[in-house]
Amino acid sequence: MSAAHHLPALAIVVPLVIAYLMPLFDRWRRGWCTPAALAALGFSFAASLVMAWQVMTHGPFSYQMGNWPPPWGIELYIDYLAVFTALTMTGVSLIVLVYGSRDLLHELKPHLLGWYYTLYLLLIASMVGMALTNDIFNLFVFVEICAIAACGIISIKESRECLEAAFKYLVLSALGSGCLLLAIALLYMVTGHLNFTFIAQALPEAMRLYPNNILAALALLLVGMGVKSALFPLHVWLPDAHSSAPSPSSAVLSGLVIKIYAVALLRILYQVFPDSIFEVTPVLTILLVMSSLAIIVGSMFAVVQEDIKKMLAYSSIAQIGYVFLGFSLMEISALTGGILHMFNHAMMKAMLFLAAGAFIYGTGVRRLSDLKGIGLTMPVPAAAFTIGALAMVGIPLTNGFISKWFLVLGALRGGQTFFAVVILISSLLNGFYYLPIIVNAYFGEPQGAVAEPKRLPRLMQAPLVILGFGCLLFGIFPSLIIGLASRAGQALLGM
Amino acid sequence: MNIAEILLRLHQNSYYFFAIILFVIGFHTMLTHNNLIKKVIGMNIMDTAIFLFFVSIGYIRGGRAPILEPGADHLYVNPLPSALILTGIVVAVSITAYALSLIVKLYQHYGTIDAEEIIRLRGGETS
Q1: Distance in angstroms (rounded) separating the CA atoms of residues B66 and A455
Q2: pTM of the prediction?
Q3: Distance in Å, alpha carbon of B70 to nearest chain A alpha carbon
Q4: Segments forming the whole domain that contains residue B79
Q5: Which end of chain A has the smaller Cβ count within 10 Å, N or C?
């Protein structure tokens, strides 16, 4: 067996191993930390690309950990959704890490950099694992790694706000994990399996015998994943956590971490639970209502924010609503739109947070009203922020337009005009809070620290340029990625 | 169903019943108490309740630990839930350790472990 055969496992294991070597490097050769972390993520990204190519040419395949066949062993199942998610996670996190390698030097104490990389790599490895795994308990283990690492990269700054936000996040996240584990227990109780495929086979029969168990499991799963992905009424931890963290952490937390739980929920809902569950319970309607509320309320909260990172954090609550809206409309265009929006929003929001981080790095200013004239003194981050903001509003030629287009199309085709209106209203609201910032940035008079910012290092400019270019590229040539997203949607709907 | 029957069923499913009661106690403690240490204790009670629930799924009354001896034919309990819960316990311990270390740091910064008090202190800071 060649090494290529083991790519799915290696994509997870390599960052995990390098993560634990980081403290060692930190003691021994501090200069090696950054290249090693970049190499690990680069490998993971390359592995995801190769897997995507394999899936596109030969179709989905599975990998058995340690050659133990399911139902005994842990199985990784590499299908369209898995490679799409893995590509998003590794690609965006790689770019963010390049930025972080310079930004963190001024945000963290120097001896913490190696430890930060440990947490960061653990976080990314666990997210790739969640995307690829086909085993529900393995999923739980990755969820827990992800939860601790995500809190870790917030609290590592050790400022008062960070610690409090991390604790709040940790408690609610532990609550979510608890619900998830209880849901797994209930599912295992009635099916006797942990592998997604085997649970799915056993559930229709179990549904007839023990419907209450399965309904309870579904409810716990919704709450657990809802808390972790900050779906509207369960979002209370997100604004503090995402706004107080170091900027690269905010970028991955807002761009990637909340999405991966949505993907896990999507996979379990569509691939594990039998279709009859949608007839017995209004689970999709519940998700639709919650996501519409998230879209509107999140945007409304964002409008009144003064702090740039807090505003972006509230905007994430609205955007995760779009993703859930796409997932729960039960229509192929909407599902494609939801999956696509996950990728697009990961790029836009990572870019916006990095640009905000660049503003803070250069000027130390966080208040939106003080950022007047920033476009003249810090052109690169301001341009990136502009592209990101336009993409958030959904202006044509940006990637945000494409995913919103698919979502609206799906809502209309599914006969749910109401949700198309929700998306349009929210786009207006997005314009309402993003556009004044852009106007201020270019037409305001720079004052104080904004007039003479610190020079931005090249390594912090390059990621902004790449992400901005990416947003335009996937907005002008969306077909590069739509193929994968729509096949993922078709596979989920069983078309 | 009369009371005797209900009691009988409760007795038969007592592990599940108490696991759920513990879960609710833990959940409630975690969300309603202001003391951060009590929140962590609540979290642990909740986790333990889930572990009890999970392990009792695999338990068979009168079953033995699944150590196979040649020639002997015993009733064995399902070892898989116990094995899974070992992982769960490790996770719960690490989350507890992390939460407690956060509380230590919070105490150093704010001089209190009361959530309300911390919010009040932070409120005074921003305004």
Answers
A1: 66
A2: 0.93
A3: 23
A4: 3-126
A5: N
